[in-house]
Every structure is written in C-alpha cells, then in structure tokens.
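Ligand: pyridoxal-5'-phosphate. Inputs:
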Amino acid sequence: MPDNNLKTLFIASDHGGFALKEFIKANLAESTLLKDLGTYSEESVDYPDFAHLLAGQVAAHPGTSGILICGTGIGMSITANRHRNIRAALVHDQFTARMAKEHNNANIIVLGGRVLEPVAALKLVQTWLECKYENGRHQRRLDLIENRNLNSTRDITAPLNQVDPEISRIITQETEREESKLIMIASENCVSQAVFEAQGSVLTNKYAEGYPGKRYYGGCQFVDQAEQLAIDRACALFGAEHANVQPLSGSSANMAVYFSVLQPGDKILGMNLAHGGHLTHGAPVSFSGKFYQSSYYGVNRQSEKLDYDEIEEIALRERPKLIVVGASSYSRTLDFPRFRAIADKIGAMMMVDIAHIAGLVVAGAHPSPVPYADFVTTTTHKTLRGPRGGMILCRQQYAAKIDKAIFPGLQGGPLMHTIAGKAVAFKEATSPEFIATQKQTVVNAAFLADKLQKKGLRIVSGGTDNHLFLIDLTDLPVNGKGAEAALDRAGITINKNGIPFDPRTPTDPSGIRIGTPIASTRGMREAEMEIVADSIFAVLNHPEKSSVIEETRATIRNLCSRFPVYSYLL
Ligand code: PLP
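Predicted complex:
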C-alpha cells in the first residue's frame, strides 16, 4: 500500500519499453518514491496487463502517479485511459510533457520506448514531474471528462475508493480472499459480473410496493418489466405455476409461506435442526418454533439417512397442517413423491425448501419437488448462483395468498436491484455452462467424499448425492471449531457443523461441512478434488503442524491461481 503523502510514482512497461524503464529508474532523482510494477525482462508480455495494473494502482490511491512505457506508447495509453479518473498522456516532446501536467493534470505519463531517445525521454518525465497543474479553467474540463454535473456541488461520480477508502479497502480485501482461498462453504457461490451490474444499478433507487402493473408508486414502467422477467424466467426454469421473486431472503420466503396458510399455533413438521434441517423449519429459537407448534423428524441413527417410515409415523401421530421438506446439511436425495404420499395421508400441505439444491434441481442433478409440493421456497444465492435473496414458487391456487403474505403482509418496497439480479441469474441458469457446472458440482462432491473416505475419514451417511457432505471428526485430533480454523489458515474455508446425534454443542460441534459449488464454478474437476482431498486430510491430521499448514496454503494458493474468478477485479 503506497503512502500517499510521499506521492508514490509507479512505473511499468512491456518488453518493448523495458530498456527505457530501466534507464529511467537508474537516472531519476533518488528522492522519487518509485515503485516498479514490471515487466522484469525483455521476454514478450502483453502490454494491457501492465497498463491495467498501474492504472488500477493510481486510480485506487489518489495523489499517486505513474509512468507507462511500451513500444509506441499508444497501446498503454489506450488501456490506461479506460480507468475512471485516469488521465494518461502520451507525450513525445517538451511541450506536450508540460501541457500534460499544466492543463490536463495527467496522472500518468506514457512514453514510446521505440520512439524516444532515453535521455530525451528522461527529460520529458522530469518536466512532467516538475510542472504544476494550473487548475482554474482546466478543472471544469477535467470534470467534463468524467461527465461530472457541474451544476451540483455533489460529485456523484466520485468512485468508492475516493468517497470511502475504508469500505473500498475492505471490498478489495474480501475480493482477494475470495480469489486466493478455496471456499468450500456449501451455501456460498460466486456471482457473475452481469449480476453485480444489475445489483449495483439505479434500480436500487426505486420504490415499487405492489406487483407488476399494480403498484403503489408512479414511475414503475421499467421495474415492472424487470420483475415480470424475473417471474417468467423463474416459472420457466422450475416449471412452476406461480413465482414470487420479492422475498428478501430464504428465511423470509419460508415465513411468508407460513403466514399465507397457517394461523399462529398451527402444527408444522420439519427436519430437526440438529440433523441438518434449517432454523426456519420449526426450531424453537426461530419465529417458526415460536409461532407454530413444531414437531421434528430426523435421520436414522445407523444409516444417517431419512427414514421415511418413521417420518410417516410421526406425521400420523402429530397430524401437522404443513410438512416442511428440505435441509441445510443433508447430503442425500430427498424423496419428494414419498413426502407427498405422507402429506396426503393426513391431508397436510407440503412445502419444500430447496435453498441449497435449487441449482441442482434446475440442472436435473436432483429431482424437482415442483410437481409434488404446494409450495417451493429457495434462496437465490446458493447453488442457484444469483444475488442474495429468496423466492417462492407455488401452485396457482395459492398465488394470491402468497403474494399478499409478502406484500403487504411482511415486506414493504421490494429490492428492485436484487430482483433484476435474480432475473439475470435465472437467465444464466439456462446456459449449458450452468447445467454442466451443477452436474460437476455433484460429481466433485462425490469424488471428494469418496477419496476422503478411502483415506480413513468418516463421512456422515457414507457419502453424498448432492453438493455437500459432513465429516465426523470424532476420531481425529481436532474438533469442528479447530478444523475450521486450521483449514482456513491453510487456505480452505469451510464451516464447523453438527453431525446427527452429536454429543457436542452446536457452537463446538464434532463435524465440518464441505461443499463443492464454488470449486466447480471456478472450473475445478476430479483432478483438482484429488489435490483438495490430500490437503484436507493432511490438515485434519496435523492441525497444529505449521509445516503442513504452510505447505497446504502454498498448494491451495497455486490451485486457486489456476482457476481465477475475481482476479479481473483486483
Ligand atoms: N433454508 C435453508 C434450507 C437454508 O439452508 C437457508 C440458509 O442457509 C435458508 C433457508 C435461509 O436463507 P437466508 O439466510 O437467506 O435467510
């Protein structure tokens, strides 16, 4: 991180400018805080890489400046000027070098290594450094370059790194973390630039209480189209009769289903949180356990799989009004026809929460609950690879009740930027790449679980049919909490997780949960899962051995660098 007070001067070149870069470095005044960003030899490289690198640094650190050199200087200046607030001037004589600073306040000077004599080029740099920006009438023109509104004192175009360097730095750090670590949290994924753009758009400004064509605000003609697209795409993607794309999260989608058809005190039956269910499926600490009378089903102690005969027994005994199907950490295929049959036996409604497996369902890598369930809820940000949020699919007969439960029942203005992001994600989910990635996610999880099992680790239920699995650490020298910390130090981010019938507490459990959505989105396949299996096994067996942690971290960093995801943002 450069010290702005010392006004760092970055320098970078391609192979065509390398010799001149070295000459300038050797001859510039020693007081200059020069930072060389490469290239470091005459071996052929691509000039945009170095122009982007340097321009990104200058744009991110106001007060700094830079020198770029390629054969003619043309390619470097074209590339650098793509960055906001960069004014890269290609100069070739004393007059243009002086004007570049006095009139244009160029924060990057660009030179042609095959055009200029070294001594002449050095003098151009010195002139540009010594001259002062004249300000005055020129500032208005510089503002116009950035399309600033000269009638407002508010500079709406100022970039985040200028307005709020602290948040900007945090975002950069998070980007670096997501890029350099292998994230195997089963509920996370990496959204595309297209989703980012929809989310970071003017749609965030718009109030649109209501639904397309029936709003409580004017000016909704465009957000109506965005929401209708999201609805239509969701229905087509899942083969559903009705979609509500407004839920703020998976939890609020579940809440809306309950509010739509249940009264406080009604009975619900859901999967036990301790066996892999979700908080909102009736857990006592959640609204779902407080407002409704909840009972639970779990997995069989021996098989660690759902025992449908037992679920039927519980349903017949408890007679819930709604059966909730779905889980946060259950690795086996859910038998929707069987759940439907159980619900029908007692005249119950059936809700399936596919928050985790929605992407798999789209790709046919897990059976769809839509033909069986009265309601299907999901998050949009897990395997579905969209923005954070929720969605409800339902049969037409429940459409009005669901829509009323969301608005005005539970929410006010919908997040239109997020709804647009959902629409983009639903479109992306029809692509061959998405379908193939979802299928590979399942292949990768099965392969990884199998490798770890063959090495001697105990995988809960003996394997996986979906994107995740649990490892029981009982016989290893580390518990869930320690494993989460050790693996993170080694570059693999997972989460501690209870295992069924866990003798330990939820905050200090016996297991960890591993998921393959992000690895698969990055393009990793079985060969990479082999490396990951060796790494996880080594760390779980030697969580305190620094040589193992260091070695694994280097392996994982190298692996991630071969499968970049957000390097273009750094
Ligand atoms: N349902 C299931 C099965 C989940 O796993 C989750 C989140 O992990 C949710 C619902 C809740 O989603 P959100 O965190 O968006 O409220």
